[in-house]
Amino acid sequence: MGRQKLDGFLVPRADEFQGEYVPPRAERLAWLTGFTGSAGLALVLAKRAAVFVDGRYTLQVRDEVDGGLYDYRHITDEPAEAWLAQHFPTGGRLGYDPWLHTQDGLIAIREAVERRQGQLVPCERNPVDAVWSDQPAAPIAPVVVHPLQYAGREAAEKRAAIGAELEKAGLDAAVISQPPSLAWLLNIRGADVPRTPLPLGFALVHRDGTVELFIEPLKLAPGIETHLGNGVSVSPPAEFGRALDRLGSQHRRVLVDRGSGALWIVEKLKAAGAGLVMGEDPCALPKACKNETELAGMRHAHRRDGVAVTRFLAWLDAHAAKGEVDELIAVEKLAQFRRLGELFRDFSFDTISGAGPNGAIVHYRSSPRTNRKLESGELFLIDSGAQYLDGTTDITRTVAIGTPTPEMRDRFTRVLKGHIALGAAKFPRGTSGSQLDALARRALWEVGLDYDHGTGHGVGSYLSVHEGPHRISKVPNRVALQPGMIVSNEPGYYKTGGYGIRIENLVAVQPEPAAEGGLPMLSFETLTLAPIDRRLVETKIMTADEIAWLDAYHSRVRESLTPLLDAATATWLAQATRPL
C-alpha cells in the first residue's frame, strides 16, 4: 500500500467473474484474514482494519478472524461506508482492484470516500497478490462438452435466440462475464472452481448469434472446436481487452451485466468509445427457466440423491445415539453413499454438518479443530448436495439425537409450518419470490422469532447450486417466478449456543390449472425426496392441512425410493414416513 501511495485497500471475496465459488488463486480474503465464507469484504487501513459479513457468517467470522486485528461488522447493519466515515483519513486514497468490483458495488464506498475529501484509486497490481508469495496458479481444468441428452437444447439454437434478443433491444453485442452463463450458452462444462463444473472465461455474443470466446486454449478438450462450430471463435484471455477496444472503435452498443460485469470491463468500453448499456445478463433468465429435458434430469437426479440421503439417515439413526458419530464421520459417510449414485460427478458444496451449538452457525464447516460428537438430547443439522450430469441437488435435514426438548420440537414445527406454507403455495403469474417470503416466516413471527438469511435461492442444471436472477428473500427482488425455475425452500431457526434448525427441499415452478375466469396461476413441484424427522413434529400446533401435506410428502418419498433401497433401509424408511 505504501509503495502505491494508498491509505487503504478493499479486499472482497471475489474473482474477475464475480462468482460465489472462486478458484484457490482468488481466495484473497481467506488468505489475508482467515475468513472462509462465500461472501465478505475486508477494509484494510494502515493501522486499522475491518471485515464485513452478512447474517449467515456473524458467528463464523468471530471463530476464524482475529478480533485483535479486525473489527467485526454486519455488512447490512454496519456497512463499509459507515465504517469508512469513522476511520478513513481525510484526503486519503483508497485502492481497489477493478477486476474484483462492479460499478454498482462501489457506489456507496466511493461516496463515503469522497465525503472524506478522498479518492477511490484503481490499482493495476493487487497489493494482496504482491505479497502472497505462494499464491496458486490460475486453473487449467479441461473444458468438455455437456451432451444434448442432458442440456436439452442445442448451443447454436441458444446463441441464435440470445442474438435475436440483442437485435430486438437495439444492441450490437453483450459481454458474458458469468461462467455459468458461458457454460449454459455453449453447452460446455469445466472444473476451474471447487464444487461447480465451470470453465472460467469471457465471451462476446453478437446480434447475429456468433460468439467470441476468450479462454485458455490449453483447456479445450479434443473435439470442443467441432462442438462449438463455425459460429464460435476461440482466443486467449489476453485478447479480451483488444476485442473490447475494437467494439469501442466501431461505436457499438454493448450490454454489460450490472451485477457481474467487472469495473475493468466497464471502464475499458467507456474509454474505447462504445455505447455502454448496463443491464441484465441476457443468458440469466433463459438459463433459469429449465427446459423439459433439464427438468426430467433434475427429477431423476433427486431420486438417486434421495436414495443416498435416506441410506445415510437410516445409518445415522442406528449409530448416532450410541455416541459413535461425530460431524466429520457423518460428512464422510454421506459422501460414501452419494459416490455410489449413477452420474455422480462431485458435491455441489462442502457439506454443512453441525452438531448441537455448531448447527446454529448458518454456514458452518466442520474441521478437526471444531469437530463435535453428536450427543443425545441435541439436534444435528446437515446441509448437503451433489452434482450429477443430469442435475444439481441441495437438501437440508435436521435430526433429533435421542429425545428432543419441547422447545426444540416447537421451533422445528414452526420451521416446518413455514416450509409447508411455501411449498404448498399457489400464486398468480408475475409474483416474485420476495412476495412469497413471509409465508415461510409467519409461524416464527407469531412467537417473535426469525432467521437472518434468504428463504430460497435458484439452482442450476449441473451448474451452480446458487443461481439467479430469482430468489425468495426479504430483500426486494422484482424477477417474477416463471415455469421451469428451480428454487430452494429453506426456512430455519438458530439458537446461538444451542442448536440450529433448517428444512430444505428444492422445488420447481410449474403452471397451475386456472379456475374458470381466474388468473393464470403457478405452484411448486417438490423435487427433493427424503424423510423429515417426525420425532421433532409437534402436531398440536399444526393444522389438519399441514399434517395432510407432510403425510402426502412422506407417502411420495416412500413410494419413490423403496424400490431402490435394500430391505433394511426400506423397513427403516417405512417407519420414518408413517402417517402422523
UniProtKB/TrEMBL annotation:
* Entry GO MF terms: metal ion binding; metalloaminopeptidase activity
Q: Which residues form the Creatinase N-terminal domain?
A: 1-124
> Residues in domain Peptidase M24?
297-510
Q: Name one Pfam family in it.
A: Creatinase_N
Q: Does the keyword Ribosomal protein apply?
A: no
Q: Which domain of life is it from?
A: Bacteria
Q: Where is the Peptidase M24 C-terminal domain?
A: 520-580
GO cellular component: a single term: cytoplasm
For this entry, the protein name equals Xaa-Pro aminopeptidase
Its source organism is Hypericibacter adhaerens
